[in-house]
Design brief:
binds magnesium ion, six-stranded mixed sheet, 7 helices, binds adenosine monophosphate
């Protein structure tokens, strides 16, 4: 049986929960999923490495020349004056010199060609005089010049990538350079998403009276369109506690994570809250963050559950602040390229209430001196999706921050690599 009146399970009922507290509770309660897939390396961009990659090779495999020129043993280098050496043969990349090497000789060598033992030095062709099968070298050279030593980049047995690495194109090139063509990556995270509300219509429908188009599910579908996530679209669920519970319970059997939007606040029509209150597994929080104050978090069946607020900007802000770190935890990502934080001067006044974190939307750019500046995208209402669409960055006004005047420094998180 489902109660229709929400009971009071709000923690921090008297006040608001600081965002960092909410985030640390979320992360503490999320498991990292198990299971992996073996894939060809070129299909692993944006996936999480599941194994340690240990090199079975030295890179470079052989000591080789970094220049087009002449290879020789360093004992032939003159400490003063000029020395003549006979050119005994030719070494090319992929076609090593096969003969024996003799004292007072050198080899013509091209970039990437192996140096025969015991040669240890290469001299740029621009630095020698050539004449009748001989070269003349002067005393400007040192032992080991212009040579890439075997194992200089990577030693055989060295761990080059550790589990939990979020794989990037250079990593994939690196794997190939070690002769590895398949690797184990963590299986994709299965995320079910839903919009809730009787007033919500899909963009291909004609909204009834008072109806609005569903933007949240599309923002989420797009934000979750990543190689490491498999999205299950639950569509729009009507505002009926039994239906909501049934659909969430179904998803809780196969999904790792369920994300819904709407219905988590304290209004008359907050059906998601009504549906889940009795499950005992979902907490309803009021968080000291604007936008995004109401947030539900917990478990449904086997899945973690996020009930995001209904307002379209609040959805994206809570996605950034709470869901993105949660995805990383569940995917076991421990090492990924950073999304930078930039300190910029605000070009205008930014109003901020004390006692909460405000995540405003801004346009980050550089002034004529090349210094970072940020301006707001204008009206910051949590339903104004234009404020988010025009933005290229969040302006983060921390809990203890007060309003900012034009020219003040503020913390900015560019969207690059985030959405
Ligand atoms: P709620 O928390 O369900 O009362 O929703 C708060 C506000 O967000 C209301 O104005 C809703 O109409 C709006 N809203 C809820 N879900 C969506 C959605 N999927 N797309 C656009 N707006 C929504
Ligand atoms: Mg609603």
């Amino acid at each position: 049986m489902i109660k229709t009146q929400p009971s009071c399970t709000d923690i921090f009922e008297s006040g608001l929960m600081p965002c960092e507290v909410a985030l640390s509770r979320i992360l503490a309660n999320l498991p990292t999923i198990n299971g992996y897939q073996r894939l060809p390396i070129e299909k692993t961009r944006g996936r999480t490495l599941y194994e340690a990659i240990v090199s079975t090779l030295n890179v470079p495999a052989q000591t080789n020349s970094a220049v087009d020129g002449y290879a020789l043993h360093s004992s032939e280098l003159p400490s003063e004056g000029i020395k003549r050496l006979a050119v005994k043969g030719l070494a090319l990349a992929g076609t090593p010199y096969q003969g024996a090497v003799e004292p007072s000789t050198c080899l013509r060598i091209m970039t990437g060609a192996a140096l025969p033992k015991p040669f240890d030095t290469a001299i740029m062709q621009e630095h020698v005089e050539t004449e009748d099968g001989f070269i003349a070298i002067d005393n400007r050279h040192k032992a080991g010049d212009n040579v890439r030593r075997a194992g200089e980049d990577i030693k055989q047995g060295e761990t080059v990538l550790a589990p939990g690495r979020y794989l990037t194109p250079p990593d994939i090139g690196l794997l190939a350079s070690l002769g590895i063509n398949e690797i184990n990556v963590r299986r994709p995270l299965v995320v079910a998403i839903a919009s809730t509300g009787n007033e919500i219509f899909a963009p291909f429908e004609t909204p009834g009276e008072g109806g609005i188009y569903d933007s949240n599910r599309y923002s989420l579908l797009a934000a979750l369109d990543r190689p490491d996530i498999e999205v299950v679209d639950l569509g729009i669920i009507e505002d009926d506690p039994d239906t909501l519970l049934k659909r969430f319970n179904e998803a809780g059997r196969y999904a790792d994570l369920i994300i819904s939007s709407g219905g988590v606040s304290v209004g008359e029509a907050d059906f998601t809250k009504t549906a889940l209150l009795n499950s005992g597994q979902v907490d309803f929080w009021k968080i000291a963050i604007k936008p995004g104050r109401p947030l539900a978090f917990g478990r449904i069946g086997n899945a973690a559950f996020f009930g995001l607020p209904g307002n379209p900007v609040a959805v994206l802000v809570t996605f950034y602040y709470f869901v993105l770190p949660a995805l990383e935890k569940m995917l076991g990502i421990v090492d990924k390229p950073i999304t930078p934080t930039i300190i910029a001067r605000t070009t205008e006044k930014l109003r901020k209430k004390p006692g909460r974190t405000e995540i405003q939307r801004g346009i980050l750019s550089r002034d004529q001196d090349g210094d970072w500046i940020v301006r707001t995208t204008g009206k910051q209402g949590s339903g104004i999706l234009m404020s988010m669409s025009k933005a290229n960055a969040f302006i983060i006004l921390n809990h203890q921050d007060t309003s900012k005047s034009a020219g003040d420094w503020v913390t900015v998180r560019p969207f690059c690599g985030m959405f």
